[in-house]
Specification:
Layout: H1 5-8, E1 13-17, H2 19-25, H3 28-44, E2 47-49, E3 53-56, E4 63-71, E5 76-84, E6 96-103, E7 110-115, H4 117-135, E8 142-146, H5 150-160, E9 167-171, H6 179-187, E10 192-194, H7 197-203, E11 206-209, E12 214-218, E13 228-231, E14 240-242, H8 246-249, E15 251-254, H9 257-262, H10 266-271, E16 280-282, H11 283-287, E17 301-304, H12 309-325, E18 330-333
Parallel strand pairs: 1-7, 8-9, 8-11, 9-10, 11-13, 12-14, 13-17, 15-16, 15-17
Antiparallel strand pairs: 1-18, 2-4, 3-4, 4-5, 5-6, 6-7
Helix pairs in contact: 2-12, 3-4, 3-12, 4-5, 4-12
The structure holds nicotinamide-adenine-dinucleotide.
The site of nicotinamide-adenine-dinucleotide has 27 residues, from α4, α5 and β12.
Length: 334
């Protein structure tokens, strides 16, 4: 073995996978498969997330941080760095900005840099879609959308593939933004109606929340029996989208319990002592057949989707492999 200093510092090649390449190779189907599979691995203990760093940087009202993890079975190691810059959209950029760095788990060498903006949206939509596929009533007909920001159309597209929805109702703090959801419904030939939060709760069989709210929008009394809620917006301490009493009425599932009780929607119910970590089930257990999931037509199920690093790594790894095969990744020597 050549251990001369020259050999030890020899350059190696990495892949650069652009935003455009990610959009070409990862569709909803690929994202759903990657996310469902990594949730399953997490529940088996063969993939684990490292503690999240997420901080308000005191500039541009931004939240910045790192999500990382290791999938021992899939041999995917990496980190997503980035965050949320709420002022971006008025300048024509998306509020979420991120990049995924993938490392060789055998050597620690950087393997790929994968643009993370589109992937974040598609993996977050896949996460709620996985929850709907496994937990919503089969006969769910009305989908309620709370939020109409950048993520919302990804969420809506992915949800519509999971059940035979016959109508979409929606609410947003700025109602004028609801047109983007109405446009998606038109594409799917589905009736769309802008409604109050109370009307949304009383009609919907499945509700997706995807806002940056920091106070409860949906009240417990407005949610009807048998509803499935996918709470996707709360991913930071202090954020909240729904009345925390809903979590005491519901059977609660999550991507990861540690995140659910600290940065997810469950943080408030746990603080109020109406829910404990032991009462929350990782959705991977349902995927793996260890938990039955929904047990009755009347049961309210709730998925607290906090967004884990392994989701990002799973879709980024798939994007890097597919982009390489299709000649869409650039090779750069470090
Ligand atoms: P966006 O900035 O494009 O849209 C924000 C949405 O929240 C809009 O509908 C806006 O009207 C609404 N909103 C903002 N403040 C509100 C308030 N005080 N009350 C009620 N509604 C309010 O953001 P986005 O990209 O659509 O993301 C939405 C949220 O989802 C963000 O908070 C983001 O951090 C979160 N998110 C979570 C995950 C996850 O994995 N769980 C992944 C990505 C984004």
């Amino acid at each position: 073995m050549d251990t001369s200093s020259e050999a030890l510092t020899q350059p190696h090649q990495i892949l650069i996978v652009s935003e455009d390449a990610c959009q070409k190779v990862i569709g909803r189907h690929e994202a759903f498969q990657a996310v469902e599979s990594v949730f399953s691995s997490m529940a088996k203990g063969s993939a684990y997330n490292f503690p999240v760093v997420r901080e308000a940087i005191g500039h541009a009202n931004a939240l910045y941080g790192f999500k990382s993890g290791f999938d021992r079975e899939g041999l995917v190691l990496g980190v997503k760095a980035g965050g949320y810059w709420p002022g971006n959209v008025v300048q024509g950029r998306t509020n979420h900005q991120s990049i995924v760095a993938l490392f060789d788990p055998d050597t620690g060498q950087l393997k790929a840099l994968v643009s993370g903006n589109y992937l974040t949206a598609i993996r977050t939509a896949a996460s709620s879609a996985v929850s709907i596929a496994h937990l919503a009533r089969k006969n769910a007909k009305v989908l309620g959308m709370i939020g109409a920001g950048f993520q919302s159309t990804f969420q809506l597209h992915a949800a519509l593939e999971q059940r035979d929805f016959e109508k979409v109702v929606a609410w947003n703090t700025h109602p004028e933004h609801l047109t983007r959801l109405a446009d998606v419904c038109r594409e799917h030939n589905l009736p769309f109606e802008a409604v109050s939060l109370q009307a949304l709760g009383s009609q919907s069989d499945v509700i997706i929340t995807i806002t940056s709210a920091s106070e409860p929008l949906l009240q417990a009394a407005w949610v009807k029996p048998g509803t499935h809620l996918a709470c996707m917006g709360t991913d930071t301490k202090g954020k909240q989208e729904i009345d925390h009493r809903i979590l005491a009425q519901a059977t609660v599932f999550t991507d990861e319990i540690d995140q659910s009780i600290s940065i997810g929607e469950a943080q408030h119910a746990v603080t109020a002592r109406i829910l404990s970590a032991e009462q929350i089930t990782p959705i991977g257990e349902v995927i793996n057949g260890l938990h039955q999931g929904r047990q009755s037509e009347q049961e309210i199920t709730l998925f607290d989707g906090t967004g884990v690093g392994l989701q990002d790594l799973a879709v980024a790894s798939a994007a890097a492999s597919l982009a390489e095969v299709r000649g869409l990744a650039q090779r750069v020597t470090l």
